[in-house]
Amino acid sequence: MIRRSFLIIIILGFSTLIVCSQTIISSSDLFKKKTDDPKAGQLNIIQDPALDTLMSRYIIANEIQEQKNGSGIEGFRIQIYNSSNRNAREESAKVRADFMNQFPDINSYLIFAEPGYYKVRVGNFRSRTEATRLYLIISKKFPNADLVPDIISLPDLNNK
Does the pLDDT value for residue 15 go beyond 80? Predict the structure, then answer.
């Protein structure tokens, strides 16, 4: 009887440790700002604790996606070349160089996808609407261009 109750106490202790080890980020932790300014105000957030749980799940999901896809966000790019020919590597490099000569301001990306596809994608657009304007210009010079969803580079906020 004593062994059984001791075993139950140990199991409950371990399960409590496992539950407590999960990190929950509260909204007040996200908006903390340490300042020595005596005139600085104070932010009090009054909300349902379930929102903290949802934010923690969102942050963890984004961390997992970042580990899987590298840093970036969901967006759109314009694909101007896609082939798996024997000389697709050389062709893709030529298409990319040609694009870089015609549109030096727009980033271009050479992508290799299994089983032997070489793709050239250009631009970093957050929405389809934003990409459509440039797509109409590019499709005149590259008739095989197509708008595709992709993980795009994070925008540089310092240049705005």
Answer: no
Q: Which helix (H) or strand (E) holds 68?
A: helix 49-69
Contact 108, 99 (CB under 8 A): yes
Range in 30-39, 41-50, 126-135, 146-155 the model is least confident about: 30-39
pLDDT tens by residue, 140-150: 999 999 999 98
Measure the CA–CA gap between 97 and 141, rounded to whole angstroms.
14
CATH homologous superfamily, domain 74-153? Sporulation related repeat (3.30.70.1070)
Domain ranges of the chain: 74-153
Instruction: List, in sequence order, every beta strand (DSSP E) within 11-144.
Output: 73-83, 108-113, 117-125
Give the model's pLDDT for residue 53. 82
Q: Is the dihedral of CA 41, 47, 49, 50 positive or negative?
A: negative
